[in-house]
Design a protein that fits this description.
By secondary structure, this protein is mainly α. The C terminus is likely disordered. The chain folds into 2 domains: 88 residues, no CATH class; 69 residues, no CATH class. The protein is built from 5 helices and 4 strands. Helix 1 packs parallel to helix 4. The radius of gyration is 21 Å and the shape is extended. Bound molecules: zinc ion. Zinc ion binds next to loops.
Length: 166
Amino acid sequence: MVKKTKGSRNREKIRSQMARLHERVANRRQDFWHKLSTDLVRRFDTVCLEDLSVANMVRNRALARRIAQSGWAEFRRQLEYKAVWYGKHVRVIGRFEPSSRLCWCGYSNHALTLADRAWTCPQCGRQHDRDVLAAHNIKRFAFAKHKTGRDTPGVPGERPPVDERP
Ligand SMILES: [Zn+2]
């Protein structure tokens, strides 16, 4: 292997090629977030988000880095200013309880790992897709918070939506 000396032409060339590649990836990502945020704000009156930056999540360093690199914070920023443009709302909840773990019956699955995409509640037998469950919980908690000002569901015994019923 040829060792590249500092400042050599070859090294410069590779460096500028790498820079161009990074820029292209960043642009594509930015473009994706813009399209998604515009689409969501146009189609819905309220978009509910989970605040991924708070303590719980950041404790997992690898995950925190991935979230930071994915542009999640930028996506949230875009959603918030576009919501103002279109007269829509963005509601953000904290991580009071991991949203993918909390069953409609109140059971919290502490054994759930990131690799588990689906799980069955041992208490009530409902089957959950973790992402669908998380989306329902985020919406439920975001609206409850809006009513009560607290990070807890304000409607005890609220019936789950039809597609989540066993
Ligand atoms: Zn359950």
